[in-house]
Structures are given as C-alpha cells and as structure tokens.
Here is the input.
Amino acid sequence: MIENRPIVTFISHSVIILGIIIIAFPVWITFVAASHDALRMTQSPLPLWPGGHFFENLSEALFVGLDVGGASQPVALMLLNSFVMAMVIALGKIAISLLSAFAIVYFRFPFRMGFFWMIFITLMLPVEVRILPTFKVVADLGLLNSYAGLTLPLIASATATFMFRQVFLTIPDELLEAARIDGAGPMRFFFDILLPMSRTNIAALFVILFIFGWNQYLWPLLITTDQSLTTVVMGIKQMLEAGEQLLQWNKIMMTTLIAMVPPIIVVVSMQKMFVKGLTETDK
Amino acid sequence: MAGVNIQNIKKSYGSVEVLHGINVDIKDGEFIVIVGASGCGKSTLLRMVAGLEQITEGDISIGGRIVNEVEPKDRDIAMVFQNYALYPHMSVYQNMAYGLKLMNLSKDEIEARVAKAADMLQIGDYLKRRPRELSGGQRQRVAMGRAIVREPSVFLFDEPLSNLDAKLRVTMRLEIRALQRRLDVTSLYVTHDQVEAMTLADRLIVLNDGYAEQIDTPLNIYEKPASEFVAGFIGSPPMNFFTGTISGNGKQLELDTGSIMQIGDYPVENSHGRNVRIGVRAEKFAPCNKDEAELVLNVAAVETLGSETLAHGFADNTDSNDFNNSIVVKLAGDARPVVGEVLPVRVMPDGLHLFDMENGKRI
Here is the structure.
C-alpha cells in the first residue's frame, strides 16, 4: 500500500510501536529482574533499570541452580534435557513423517488411502486428549523417567506427514522415472532425490517442531519424577513452588531468560530457509 | 548396439485396451519415429520399451534378449523426457554422472564420459550450473547428455522438443539427427509433430488409436499412405478428401458434389460403381483453364506464407461456411488469389489417393 498522508503514517506507526511495547516490556522486565539481587526484587517498587548482578545471577543459575522446592538442579542440566527432548522430537517427527509420506505417495499397497486417512485423523488427537491411555502405555513399557518416554509419544505427526505428502506430490513423476532408468532403487531415490529436494521444507518444519518440543510442559511434567530429567519449562514452574522460602525472583527471571534463548537462535539462524520452505512451490 | 523387436505388444488399463498388438522389428542403428495424435498410445509404447510400464501381452526384446521383466536400468537404454526430468538440486555434471555413479564406474571413467558428452553437446561451459540456471535448449542438451553418457544400446525420446520454441526446435532436430548418425545408436522417438517425424525418421510408425496404421519410410508414407488416417495425418496442409463413385469402367471418379475426375493409370480394376474416399494433397492441384477444370473452387480464404500461397475454398455447390470441409490448394509463392475469386483446378497425374469407404484402407 502506497499512501503518503502523515496522519496515516502516524497512526500506523503508533499501532506498531504500541504492539512492540506490549510484547517487549515483559521481556525487558524479565531482563531487569535477572540483573538484581534477590533482596532488591522483594522491595517495592519493582526496578525498571538493570542492576549489577547479571553475570553473577547467570553463572549461579546455570551451574548451581536454586535450592528451592523441587528444582534443585542447575539450569544447565535442564537446558540439556530440554535441548535433547526438542531435538529428538523434531528430528524424530521429521524422519517418521518423511518415511510415511514416501510410502503413501510412491508405493502402491492395499489400503493405502485407508492408512493415509488413519494418519490424518490423528490430527484430532493431540497428546492432551489421549494423555491417560498414552501414560498407561508408556508406564507399561517401563519408559517413565527416561528420554524415550519423554519423546516417543510426541513423535508421531500427522501434520508433518501431510505436509511432506503435498511436497512429494509436486515432484514430477518423470524424476522418479529418470532415477529408475539411472538405476536408483526406492531408497536411493529417497535419499538422493527426494530428501535434497525437500531440504527447505524440512528446515521449516524443524523450526516449528523444535519450538513445539521445547515448549512441552504437560507431558514432561507427567512422565518424569526424576529431578535429573527436569526440563527448563518445568524447572521454572518448580522454582515458583518455594513453599515457606523467599522466592528468588532474580534467578527465576534469569532462568526464564535463558529458556528463551535456544528457540530464538533456531528461528534466527534458520529464518531464511524457514520462509523459503513455507512459500517456495517451484520444483 | 542392438536392435529392438516388438512382438504383438498389447497394453490394457483395467478393461480398456489402449494398444492392440503392435509388431515392429527395429534394426540396429535405425532411427524410428512413433507419431500419432495425443492419446493414441505412442508414449505408452515407448514407456513399455523403457520398462516404465508393464506389458500386458506380447514380448519386447532388445538385442535378442526378451526384456519384459527386466528393470529399466538393466535394459541398456537411456531416455530423454519431455520436461527433461533433470534433478534440480544437482549440477549439470552431477546430473550426467548420477547414473554412472550408480553403475559403479570408476571416477576417472565417469569424468571421461561426461567430458566427452559435454564436448559433443557443447555444454562444457556450464557443467557446474544448476538446471534452473539454464535455458530450455541447454536443459534439453543436458538431458541428452545424461542419456549419451550411459552409452546405451537404445535411445528413447519422449517428445523431447515440444517444450522448445519453434526456432530452437529446428536446430535441436538437426542436432539430434546428426548425433544419432554419429553415435549409430538405435533410437525410438515419440512425437506428435509430423515435421519432426518426417525429417528424423529412417522409418515411421503411424499410430492411430492403438493400432499401427503404417510402418514405413517417411517418403513411402507420404506418397503411398496405407489408410485414410495416415493420409490425413501426415502432410501439411492436410490432404483434401472427397467422397465419390468410380465410374466410366474404372476410368473416372464421380464426386458427390457432381465434379468428374480422371483416374488415369491408378490401379483400380473391376471397381465400377464402387464408393470410395478420394484424397488429393494441396500441392497436387494445378490451376488450369475453366474448360479443363476438374474442380472449381470459390476462394474463401487465402494464407500467404511467402514461399507458397494456400487458397482455401469450396467446390461451387457446397456450403461455404465450414472450414473443416474446405478444400486447400497450394499455389506458388507469388500467386495472388483473391477471396471470392473462382479458381479452376485439376488433379496432377500422380496426385490421386483412393481409400475404401468402410475400412479406410488404401485401394
């Protein structure tokens, strides 16, 4: 839209700035709170400008942790747990969906469409809906308090399967035929042709799924009782259950700040591929 | 090097039969063009030779070996696709080398073969580029390069030039022909373009609705079309057709429009009174005086092409609105007929083709 009236510019900019403030202010407060000592955070009014304890809080949170409530682990360990969980979920989902989409698009087997619709219907059954039976299954398999239990039930993904199916359908049949004449079997075709051609889509999906995995809260909370498997998102919640003790807001905020960093890194570093993967249709 | 033998090949999709028994023996080094309207089964036939399509009935052998159940990669063939089917994420070099890599050839051998093919096709300068950075003609060359490096016994072309512009098509046509001569590899080439068919082929297969109407050299097909379909399909502008009766003891044709044509020495015996379809090519009409005319045209449209002039018209007592039934006469480039003019013509001595009324076969 090309419009050159100052009043319109003023209003639209005001809306943008207001939006930025609404989103950025809490983050700023988090940052400020993370840079004061615990005592200052209990006093009123809340500080609006950073204090001098940022790095002290950072190292203490990362490597020592808070000795409150259930959260007695250093945040570094929680970060590692979250990272492993998010990575396994994202990569696992991508691997499984790529293979199932490959099967559905390129192989003729009985009830092919039936299987496709079965996968598709699971879109309606996210973890939250099937949480009790899933818990029972995981418990019976003896996977409570393990990375496998944390990640496996979250790996099956109808969305990703569906997306890769659409991507594969846009790839011309002649490419498959050319590969057959060149002597590529199905798996070679998959790895040499399909995979590289879906590169940007895989990247886009990875971004979405990594954040999905990183933000998991309910499932890890249910499945882990072992402190060494606490994830960052759970950790923050547990820090708030200090009971009789004083809430250490500075460190809680520091942990929050730390928890925000990995998703930001993923989004920023893969931003270009992300946009390409979601918009590019030309094969 | 190997010939291809196609023996009574049939293809059905479910209960629909699309090829009804094709027989052709292709000699080593021969360039065969399969031509036909879209949907006649020509690509299906080619894809069956390639092994991309199951054979319902019959046998295909390449170099004396029946390949019905042989995987495409083991048939010793290479194929060029209509949309090139280049791997978009690979460079030109990788595209050509991919098949060789899967053949487990040594790196040196692969490099040598690609270099040789690239040199032959003049694509040496963009071996590092991706297909999307190439023009249509260059992509076409790469697709051919990918076929050449395999050093196959048989080349299969599936309408390889139909995505190119007219000028490039002419050059590539000549190049393909020269290349095939040089490599002396048996080739099957599918096209719907009759100019390509006529210029490239050693022998043509004219397919119609799953039947091979005629298999012969381009000239024979042009001069002695085996059926009305072939006659109408090959040649531009298309052949003119009339319906008539043989009369005058096999010496004359009486057209339904009332005109009389002389049969001359066309071999029709004992056919007095037989209803026939009569075909005359546009260039086999000669303008003449009104009193010796066999056909008098009312010119309804003129196409001036420079090297020749096409006059479309209607015999004087036929309805003159439907150009599907118009008669076209090819005149010299400097002829200037005018719309509305009366154009008397006669058929040149060897210009007549007669076909059976019922089955369309040549008489």
